[in-house]
Amino acid sequence: MQTDLRQDELAEILAPFAGKKGTVIPILQKVQERFGYISRESLAVISRFLGISESELFGVITFYAQFRLKPTGKHMVMVCRGTACHVRGGSRIKTEVEKTLGIRAGDTTPDMEYSLETIACIGACALAPTMVIDKNTYGEMTTKKVGEILGDGRKQG
Ligand code: FES
User: Fold this and answer.
1) Nearest one of 129, 127, 123 to 81, comparing CA atoms
2) Among 31, 87, 125, 137, which residue's CB has the most CB atoms within a 10 Å radius?
3) Residue 66: which pLDDT band, with cuts at 50, 70 and 90?
4) How many Cβ atoms are within 10 Å of 83's Cβ, its own excluded?
5) Among 136, 50, 131, 70, which Cα is nearest to 96's?
6) For residue 138, what is the enclosing H or E element?
């Protein structure tokens, strides 16, 4: 069963942290690294392991933008909402991506292919407006380029 497998993997992740202090964030990072997000089941196991309530852990997870509570798609699309991108039409890019994928920022397509998020600044302001798909950065974005890039991505699927 996948759940049992996950329990085993979780136990494996947690083992090196036994008896150590200040491990909440590193544990959450490792769990997310392994599963792509932190499920309710993982949360319960981590809570028991650390002796911290689930609601306290939930508070930590929601405080840090890096943690996800929902599974993400195969590809992560991030549209920059930083100032440089914003003044050069970043919100138009975001709207176009939302239209192309049929989801809003923060969501995942029903086929689990794409998740869409916005990001503060990816450090490529000279290329504004920008977006990132997985490890690839796309600069000087236009609404037309959104269709070309995501359309191609969909085809290669
Ligand atoms: S503001 Fe978008 S890359 Fe810096």
Assistant:
1) 129
2) 31
3) confident
4) 13
5) 131
6) strand 136-138
Ligand 1 neighbours by CB, cut-off 6 Å: 80, 82-85, 121-122, 124-125, 128, 130
Compute CA distances 36 → 19, 30, 66, 73, 145, whole Å.
Answer: 25, 10, 11, 9, 28
Question: Which token pair is 107?
Answer: 């969501």
Q: Give residue 44 CA to ligand 1 midpoint distance, Å.
A: 37
For residue 154, report the distance from its CA to the centre of ligand 1, in Å. 25
pLDDT of residue 1: 44
Query: Which domains are seen in the chain, by residue range?
Result: 2-63 (1.10.10), 75-156 (3.40.30.10)
Tokens of 128: 């504004």
CA 80 to mean position of chain CA atoms: 14
Q: Reply yes or no on whether the pLDDT at 79 is more than 90.
A: yes
Question: What's the full length of the chain, in residues?
Answer: 157
Other residues' Cβ atoms within 10 Å of the Cβ of residue 61: 19
The reported pTM is 0.72
